[in-house]
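Hi all, posting the design record for the shared folder.

TITLE: backbone redesign
STEP: 1 of 1
STRUCTURE INPUT:
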């Protein structure tokens, strides 16, 4: 079981104060052996972070082994190529520790198909050289014609390769383009929140890792993750193809509620293991807020060790 930490930046606290504190907490998590750090996109308050991949790129340079994830990334109003490039840069600067989780369409107030097309295009463009994509919301290159195959398509070999700079005036635009630079791994981790039924089913059928956020109650999160797994199993997909993630609040020696695993270290360990048994999650993420000064150390020593035993 992998264990991570997540943050949602925002509020009236000055960004310089809050951001530096979170960077310090990520550094502590890295030193304690936490597997991942996730910072959510947010655009409210002085400390809101509209570009979590940029924030995590800075964090990556201050850490050694913790994986750096941009969380709740929106696709609305964004150019898919730029979304791909920002995560690629995070992955390159972190030497292969980058990743991204996309927000649900309902939170962005967009058609779920827009989220699906963006993820499909980005994953496909990372994994190969020249590509073309025709969707309802995503077109790459932008001059891709209406009669091009739907989704990803690839150039056929013509028997000769002529570099674009040698084309001359008779041909000025390429039908297929490569997205560069490439991430360290062609299968860089991509997750999507499964709040919406349409996205849950699409992700399960297409091997996209599910993220059940802290906004869902524990009962809702477990039900949706279990349903994702059942659909994936019916499609012949295996658990090892994806990394299912459950995010919860944690209250060490505190009370549990619909969004929180609380109680003793043993109680919290049992709650996480019970969720894993019901859903086959491989990654638990603690939404880190309002914690006591030594809670990180206690979780690493008393909970994380039991999860990995």
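Okay, here is what came back for every position:
SEQUENCE:
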């Amino acid at each position: 079981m992998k264990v991570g930490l997540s943050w949602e930046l925002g509020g009236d606290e000055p960004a310089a104060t809050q951001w530096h504190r979170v960077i310090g907490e990520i550094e502590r998590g890295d030193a304690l052996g936490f597997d991942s750090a996730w910072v959510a996109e947010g655009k409210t308050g002085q400390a809101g972070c509209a570009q979590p991949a940029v924030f995590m790129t800075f964090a990556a340079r201050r850490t050694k082994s913790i994986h750096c994830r941009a969380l709740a990334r929106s696709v609305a109003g964004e150019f898919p190529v730029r979304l791909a490039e920002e995560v690629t840069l995070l992955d390159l600067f972190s030497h292969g520790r980058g990743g991204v989780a996309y927000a649900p369409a309902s939170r962005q107030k967009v058609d779920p198909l827009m989220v699906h097309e963006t993820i499909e295009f980005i994953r496909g463009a990372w994994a190969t050289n020249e590509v073309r994509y025709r969707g309802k919301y995503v077109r790459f290159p932008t001059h891709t014609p209406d009669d091009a195959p739907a989704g990803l398509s690839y150039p056929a070999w013509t028997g000769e390769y002529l570099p674009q700079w040698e084309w001359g005036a008779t041909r000025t635009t390429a039908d297929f383009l490569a997205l560069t630079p490439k991430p360290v791994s062609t299968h860089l981790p991509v997750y999507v929140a499964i709040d919406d039924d349409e996205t849950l089913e699409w992700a399960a059928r297409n091997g996209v890792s599910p993220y059940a956020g802290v906004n869902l109650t524990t009962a809702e999160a477990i039900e949706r993750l279990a349903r994702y797994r059942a659909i994936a199993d019916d499609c012949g997909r295996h658990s090892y193809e994806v990394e299912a993630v459950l995010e919860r609040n944690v209250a060490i020696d505190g009370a549990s509620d619909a969004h929180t695993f609380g109680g003793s270290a043993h109680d919290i360990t049992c709650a996480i293991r019970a969720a894993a048994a019901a859903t086959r999650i491989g990654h638990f993420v603690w939404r880190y807020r309002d914690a006591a000064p030594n809670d990180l150390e206690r979780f690493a020593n008393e909970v994380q060790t039991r999860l990995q035993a």
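COMMENT: The chain has a mean pLDDT of 96.
Let me know if anyone wants the other runs.
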